[in-house]
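[Amino acid chain]
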Amino acid sequence: MRGTRWLLLVAIAAILVGVSLKYRELQHAQTAETPPKPNALPASLQSKNQKYHWMKKGSNDLCARAEVEADELEAERDSHHANLVNVELKLYSKSCTSYDLIKSQAATLYENDHRLFSDGPVAITINIPTHPDPNKPPSQPITVESSAVTFDTDTGRAETDKPTHFIFARGDGDAVGAVYDPTNRVLELKSAVVVNYKPIGPHAKPMKIEAGNLVYREADSEVLLKPWGRMTREDTQMEGNNVVVHLQSTGSGPDAKHSIKQVQAEQAHGTEADKEHNRKLNYAADRLVVDYNATGQVQAIGADGNARMVSTAETAETTITGNHVEMAFTVENKESHLARVVAEGHGEVAEKPLPAAGREPGESHILRSDNLEMKMRPGGKDIESVVTHSPGSLEFLPNQPTQHHRTLDGSRMTILYAAQNRIEQFHVSDARTRTDPTADEKKHNRGVSTTVSKDLSAHFDTKTGKLASMEQTENFSYSENDRKASAAKATLDNDVIVLDTNAHMSDASSSTSADRIRMDQHTGDFSAEGHVKSSRTPESDPSKTSEMLNGDQPLQAEARKMETRDRNRSFHYEGDVAMWQGANRITADVVDVNHEKKMLKADGHVVTTFYDQPKDKDQGGSDNSGKSAAKTANAKGGKSSKSGKPAAPKAPVKTVVQAPHLVYTDADRLAVYSGGVILDHAGTHVTSNDLRAYLADSDADSRLQNAIADGNVQIKWSNPQRVRTGTGQHAEYYTDDERVLLTGGRPKFADSCKGNTEGEKLTYFANDDRLLVNGQSSQPAQSRIDRSCK
């Protein structure tokens, strides 16, 4: 489908009109130049000539204008027709350098009907040299063969309903029936039209033109193929209804060359195949317009109404549809290659990978937009880029169980392709994405994820077709089930989202903000860096025991760095860590919290702060043992009013513990401090190498139930008037009755008012200032009383 020469049509027109005109001249010449009176004719004949010859000179007298020879001319008496036998008609060109030759075994002239009819075979040869050059090889003349040809002697109109065969320099053709009207310069080949054309050139490919009916309008330089027409060139073909072929001419006269300029067709479809590169192009539309260059190659195709183009290569099939589709071609080595495609009105580009040995199929892609443009790589078999000039949508269809179904919407899209039609990268403005979970991900409660951003850029692995990375900037937001995220910028790399600048993420139980957050979409784990702030709601399990801080309030934390592990079951904080629930607080260099194991670890400059608020039982109720509030208050050193009503609420008690290391396990409510510990509680100051603090359950007055200190223990009570200090290697401190037990290393108790005491075991009751001393028989207790204190 890359061009032809319509010389055949022009030749037939010239032949038919020439025969008609020259015969009319012959008729007038016979009237003007009456031959000598012949011999007497039979009664049935009016006239008869043997070896009839007639010639008419041209105006310049250089050569004959027309020349007729016949073996015999016979006219019947009382009839209006004459018969010619073995007729030869020569029609000379104006320059007398060539002539056309028409031969017929017999022809009949009907004078009253103004027509000449040849019932038998008619042979026409076009453009025969008058004086052939012996030094040049003879050229292929144009010949036409038909029969039952009728000429209108007034108008020159010629017509036949019989099969017609024609041969010209670059091909031949056939039709059934032909009509030529020289007045309007219109040629019609009535039916079963076939033209075979062989263009010039070593790479030229033959073209075959077929039609139900062909009309050539010489004045308009157009050919009509009705009701259908087909053009075939090797594996390239176009077919449609009511085909209109517009011609273009180069040169003039006998040297004029005609070629196709444009073809229009209705309900048309076409195919372009390239077997060498295993490529095929199919197209169809309600109305199709094909433009050709001067050498016959396709340079543009326009399709309107249900336009569709399918390009098939080795690795992928690309389908383009739209209300209007335009295809532009480039010509290389005399071959047309698809260069650019524009689709308007419900435009769609669908790219589907084709099976190939040793390669897993990538995702299929469907791009939709009212105005999109596709450019091809040199050679026309692979896509280079696709751009939308209006809002569009890109859909990724999975071809494997591990691939995701994704949709991407934007105001403008640019998609760049690598070799084999694999997407390499794309950019989207005003982007909105949606990713559906795979069947396996649904089993793990993964949901539909969506993102929104001002700009989006994505890169793909060109070997596998899988998404490699994606970057979204300006007002990024993310959502999946109850998980939310936002940032100024986000990057997706192998199922990992990195949030940059003002990063924030949350789910039903927690939220985190930081300068940068890195989140694994598959596991839900994440890490955060820079000004990290997090919040986690308290556990809803009513059977849980109390946590180290305060389990009925949100757990807040700040740090320079934070990360979650084991699908958000454990949390790791680093750098100036501060963690609190209500008024209770932990600070450290590093903190690890495992909610599944109910364990907390802290390292480096650990400080824990608890505020104990007495419960309602101290305000008039009863404790778990059934003791009255007054008795409970008295047992703990409190007082009740004379009316028996409970005393006024006690102020919260603050407990602060400092140490290099801390390990807390909620199962036994034990906090183990090590590396040099300092504890302050209700006026009691304890230092030791290590300390084990047992926390009370949620109904107790104090978060600290008792503490056990080991290694260089020192306990101090002080006020401006008095200082009491106990030392030993082991100490036990009980908050319910403010009792301290000192053992190990000959414990000592020093009182600035009462003196010093040593013994094997010292027990001090801070509430009523009592000291119990136990000593061994070999080393009895010793006391030294200081009388200076009043």
